[in-house]
Design a protein that fits this description.
Belongs to the protein kinase superfamily. Keywords: ATP-binding, Kinase, Nucleotide-binding, Serine/threonine-protein kinase, Transferase. By secondary structure, the chain is an alpha+beta fold. The chain contains 8 helices and 9 strands. It has a single domain (33-307), classed as Phosphorylase Kinase, domain 1 (2-Layer Sandwich), CATH 3.30.200.20. Helix 6 (183-206) runs antiparallel to helix 8. The protein is globular.
């Protein structure tokens, strides 16, 4: 540097490696909110590419001959349900009995739904163990689904009794309340039941599943957890990935279904590939609010419990 040269120094601060700006922070918050908005893009991809894969590696393997069929617990339009036990003596007393369902239709769908529920919201539904294809022919595929035996009494069975709701009081509350029979005592019992039902539905809806056939016959009392749980997911739709959802088609029980009959707008297109459907699921969920379909059914059940009336059982349409 020669004599007389002038040195100019910048008064600006030295740039740092990363700078968080207000627009950048806002964009990050919006992105995170979208990824975790119902039914959950981030949880969906984690379930799809990791949890489901790991579960397949460790799930048990059964076939029909591994079980001895016992009492028939029920029969519907899509299958027959039995109480069952293992052919071989279990190595642990914890094995206990099972519920085995032969599904003549929608078997693959119900296996998918139960596996999704087991990974995402196990407390909402009966404890699912395994589902397998026993045989396939021109007449159709024969699927068998296996659950832990938790009891066989449904909310419908309790509601048919003249003693309802007092006949479930000790089962869900653990004791008889120190109150005379009347509205105040019934209010506590029915509120407890509804709280359990809404908790179970919220578990399904938070992961993108709409039951579509929510009724007393599909609500079983778990003797172990002393709570009511949801069963029969054959009519359910997984709106996170688009499984069992076909526009302008519906599966429902007209006695408990919402008047519109559809869980999504009839203008909604068929579901794209699972990754694309998962990425777009929060948009469709907020546009259609399909969870309200099940909430309508829950509201009818609530009214029936208060009015001490229940619709007779019929086959699902």
């Amino acid at each position: 540097m020669e004599c007389g040269d002038i040195i100019y120094r910048s008064t600006l601060p030295k740039p740092s490696g990363l700078t968080l700006t207000v627009p950048g922070a806002a964009l990050a918050l919006v992105t995170l909110s979208y990824l975790w908005a119902t039914p959950g893009v981030a949880p969906g991809f984690f379930d799809m590419f990791f949890l489901a894969f790991v579960e397949r590696l460790f799930r048990p393997t059964f076939k029909k001959d591994d079980f001895v069929l016992g009492k028939k617990l029920g029969e519907g339009a899509f299958g027959v349900v039995y109480r069952a036990s293992l052919t071989k003596k279990p190595s642990s007393k914890k094995e206990g009995d099972f519920v085995l369902k032969k599904a003549t239709e929608y078997g693959a769908v119900e296996i998918w739904m139960n596996e999704r529920v087991r990974r995402a919201c196990a407390n909402s539904c009966a404890v699912f163990v395994h589902g397998f294809l026993e045989s396939s022919s021109k007449k159709g595929a024969e699927y068998w689904l296996l659950w832990r035996y938790e009891g066989e009494a449904t909310l419908y069975d309790f509601m048919r009794s003249k003693e309802f709701p007092y006949n479930v009081e000790t089962m869900i509350l653990g004791e008889v309340q120190d109150l005379p029979k009347g509205l105040e005592r019934e209010n506590i019992i029915i509120q407890t039941i509804m709280r359990q039902l809404l908790f179970a539905l919220d578990g399904l809806h938070s992961t993108g599943i709409v039951h579509r056939d929510f009724k007393p016959q599909n609500i079983i009392f778990s003797e172990g957890s002393r709570t009511f749980k949801i069963i029969d997911l054959g009519a359910a739709a997984d709106l996170r990935v688009g499984i069992n959802y076909i526009p302008k088609e519906f599966l429902l029980d007209p006695r408990y279904a919402a008047p519109e009959q559809y869980i999504m707008s009839t203008q909604t297109p068929s579901a794209p590939s699972a990754p694309v459907a998962t990425a777009l699921s929060p948009v469709l969920w907020q546009m259609n609010l399909p969870d309200r379909f099940d909430i309508y059914s829950a509201g009818l059940i609530f009214l029936q419990m208060w009015a001490h009336t229940v619709q007779p059982s019929i086959k699902t349409m």
